[in-house]
Amino acid sequence: MKVIFSYVKPYKWTAVIALCLMLMELFVELIQPLIMAKIIDDGVRAQNQQMIIQWGAVLLILSFIAFLAGVINSYFSSHTAQSFAFDLRNALFEKIQSFTLANYQKFSTASLITRLTNDVTQVQTVLFMSLRIMLRAPLAVVGSVVMAFVVNAKLALFLVIGAPIIFVFLIFMVAKGVSYFGKVQKRVDRLNRVLQENLQAMRLVKAYLRGKYEASRFEQVASHLKVDTVKALRTMEYIMPVLLFVMNMSLLAVLWFGTKQVATGTAPLGDIVAIVNYAMRITGSFSMFAFIIIFYARAKASAERMTEVLAVDNEVESASSSIVGASSDMKLGELVFHNVSFQYPGTDATVLSNVSFQVKSGEKLAIMGATGAGKSTLLQLIPRFYDVTEGQIYVEGKDVQQWDLQELRDIIGYVPQQSLLFTGSIADNVRWGDTKAEMDEVLNATMQAQIHASVEDFPSGYDTRVGQKGVNLSGGQKQRLSIARALLRKGHILMLDDSTSALDVKTEQALWDALSEESATMLVVTQKIRTAKGADHILLIDEGKVVAYGSHEDLVQTSELYQKIAISQQEVK
Ligand SMILES: Nc1ncnc2c1ncn2[C@@H]1O[C@H](COP(=O)(O)OP(=O)(O)OP(=O)(O)O)[C@@H](O)[C@H]1O
């Protein structure tokens, strides 16, 4: 809660104003009985109309002030809560942007979405409600007790006799509530995950006629959410009866001893009436407590989940040293792997084992190997999506761990295996690679990526809207747009992870011809011997180990595995 509520700090003054206004409302509420008493004693009973008008006017003015305070309080409370939520959401989003891939894997996407939306809203609601009404209930209890002491301290003592029991009970219920509502939020995560997966796989669901199966999967997580929420709310239902029982016992004691005091003449009847009145107010405020605890417990659980995100330590980033710039003997785009071994964080399977190779400036390296051999993993180590477990990777003569991370990633153009596009125009999507690029640079990139002609054929050309995840584009179009986006970066190293799998032979050949003019060093993961043939060297990986390295002509002679692949693709020559 502490970390999360530090985001209220910039708005502390609006929060303080809201609190003061709320106190003003409470003050009016608490002195209302006294004024009523005045009207009855000095006005009605004394038959003094002047007094009735005078105190009536005071009551009216105070009520109007309370009304105004309420309206202005609403304004300040919502300003504070909305601004707080805005800042918190942005902070969470920024933190997530800085996550290492290993950290992404720790949280599921659905859980991160819930944390950024639902969890923020829970805390925002509690903040607003606290400033507006929720804090009023406990303060009204305290105020009523104080007023009761002012009226008759001996009788008022009976009102606080149950306080320790109530205090311990409330702490117990908050702890229970936090644990139960923490579970509820996890259930919300799961529900979102099933929903997200289902919506993303809608085509598959239809093709496999899995609508009913998916509906039952959803129903299952929805019913878990329902059961856990009901359990949490049922537990909270004990709050009211327990508080009311303790309060009613106190009230009985006040009446019992109060009657005795009246009988012996030690207290006026008015005192008992007033104390009973305050006791009723306390009881009334207690009826709010169940809601307060539910809201508070839920918000606390949400706050803990958000703190988890904000507290993430991004090991890769923090390891980045302050040495900036390249070494003097650097060659643009030169890359060296030296005895690199790698295991994914939290796993014990060795994905890459003792990998060593070198790619000279401007060279083209094709990386081949069976599925799961470790090709994509190898590429991801270069921009430090993950850090090597053993060995070193040198880019332009400098260990990647000594590069300023931004500078390192700035010189790398990366096209992942799965083409990802964003909602927006085609031009926006290409420009995503370099937001400052001019239109002629965009055109250069799209021409090189062999997508320009297709874009021109669209009725709106470069302004064509790309649907969610590029639904309105073909697989090959998406791949070529992703390549254009990477080319626009004009990096020293271009990494293509099986990014031409959806292209026809002619288009692919045209693309490689265009890319052969590129001065960047190129790493191309491919399954096709035809593509590998055009590379300067081929790196063949099997189960994370380098099993062959050389040109196509060399490997056809020397590597049995390469020969097998070549024969299967009828590309032995
Ligand atoms: N994020 C991850 N966490 C843990 N293990 C992973 C992760 N990504 C991949 N692996 C494992 O690492 C191994 C190599 O995967 P990688 O994706 O690098 O293979 P690949 O050669 O690119 O395969 P493909 O040609 O099918 O894309 C696989 O055994 C895979 O299960």
UniProtKB/TrEMBL annotation:
Membrane spanning residue stretches: 12-32, 52-76, 133-151, 157-181, 238-258, 278-297
In Swiss-Prot or TrEMBL terms, this protein is called ABC transporter ATP-binding protein
> Do you know which Pfam families this protein is assigned to?
ABC_membrane, ABC_tran
Gene Ontology terms: cellular component: plasma membrane
Domain of life from the UniProt record: Bacteria
- Which species is the source of this protein? Lysinibacillus mangiferihumi
GO MF annotations, alphabetized: ABC-type oligopeptide transporter activity; ATP binding; ATP hydrolysis activity
Principal location listed in the UniProt entry: membrane
